[in-house]
TrEMBL record:
GO terms for cellular component: cytosol. It comes from Caballeronia telluris. InterPro entries: FRMsr_CS, GAF, GAF-like_dom_sf, Phosphatase_reg/MetRdx. The lineage of its organism: Bacteria, Pseudomonadati, Pseudomonadota, Betaproteobacteria, Burkholderiales. This is GAF sensor protein. GO terms for molecular function: L-methionine-(R)-S-oxide reductase activity. Belongs to the free Met sulfoxide reductase family.
Amino acid sequence: MFEANLSATLPKPAFYDELAMQARALFAGESNRIANAANFSALLYHALPDLNWAGFYFMTDGELVVGPFQGKPACVRIALGRGVCGRAAQTRETQLVPDVRAFPDHIACDAASRSEIVVPLQTSAGELIGVLDIDSPQLARFDDEDRQGLEALARLFVASIEG
């Protein structure tokens, strides 16, 4: 069984470097999108402090459809441009939201969520395959170091399923 042994007391860049090493180990020899997304969402949920949701939405027939995740049940389908996930997918830019209640058109799947970061997932050819969505019950939980670390981890995930 895989065990996440990370210290949240590390400086964030070092923490994300360690998390990347563990993600690479999870992805080693496996290219199945669902398997890697399931393990990766579990790794993030248990390694990152102060989360209440970590998971994926994948592009399916022009909209985002929930994929593997950890946390409470989630919204199943999200239109491009709707909420934080839809905006990240539409703009193909990471959305770092310190207070989701101040975000226009926020979709509240879990009323406990107060901050959110959503990273678009793009293949090396530029195709949008979905988003990595992470929520916290803590206001302003995510910062630019988290953005950089999670974008790097998202690239590792995409590389793992591209073969």
